[in-house]
From TrEMBL:
<protein>
    <submittedName>
        <fullName>Uncharacterized protein</fullName>
    </submittedName>
</protein>
Amino acid sequence: MLVKYAGYDFSIPANPSVVVSSGDNDRVDILMFKYDHPERSGYITLMNMSSDPTLEELQDVRGCDFATFIEDLITRNDDTTCNREPLEAFYKDLGESDFGSWDGKDNSKWLYMFDMDKSLIYLISPGEKIVQIATDMLNTERELKAVINQYVK
């Protein structure tokens, strides 16, 4: 199923049981798909974080902007300009998660992390657009990449 969201087309499994949308111009927009079928159950959430005011508010804690923080977290950048303490806390929390990135066709970065319980993909675009995809249904690199395949090299 093709879903248009935040200027992108995402390929997600068809026939969700429930679709929920939340947000307005002053808040982060969220679009959630819940699946409750015998052959597939779980959720996929799309969140446009570009206008999330808390990202800027926490910049002092992170020591860098959110896009840099996420990229340095997922790529495990040893030369980060971000504060080490929050990064180390995330590493401890994420445990054995797999991390990686794909280069986008439009100079964007697609960063991902997954384990057997949950997966996250972050789009960091050149125009400072940040979109998060969260799911408990897709837990392999191949399944995650299929959602955004048309945008990655």
